[in-house]
Known about the structure:
Blueprint: E1 5-9, E2 15-19, H1 32-37, E3 39-42, E4 45-49, E5 57-64, E6 75-83, E7 88-92, E8 97-101, E9 105-115, E10 130-138, E11 145-148
Parallel strand pairs: 5-10
Antiparallel strand pairs: 1-5, 2-4, 2-7, 3-4, 6-9, 6-11, 7-8, 9-10
Amino acid sequence: MPILTELKLHPSHGLIHVQNPGIMTFFEDWMQQEIDQGFAWAPDGVSFQLLTDHSNVNIGIAIEDNFVPLEDAVRVICVPFDVSASGSIVVSELFQDGVAAVPQGKYALYFETGYTSLFDPARPPLIIDTWCRLTFVQSVDVEASVVRAEAPLAMPLILRTAH
Length: 163
């Protein structure tokens, strides 16, 4: 899969946010079920939980005709996402952000994440580097789903209509 945009962020709270430019979709009031499902979604954006609270994360952003999860992805989540007429999206964490070109339209947004290198969970390093891939697949009929997860996640999934 060709990666169109690459970003490197240093999230301090284990979250990355995807939204249209000019939208501030930082979910400050996650419900317990959103924590359990690994993401918080609303019509104007989505926040995904990473595998660690403090890590360096390499983020690849791709636009594809179809989606095939990477074998080493620990967590894979799909949500509906509408890209505005701006033709771009913002990927951010609390202190940094990056912009990627994505044509206006309705998409299935796939979030994948995994570890950059192997480590011993009994003696983890102070900073565990992870990777993340955001794949946009044009689709008008998308339901949120947990495609793969390292632990049982809450079902049914919660999608907010507003916040």
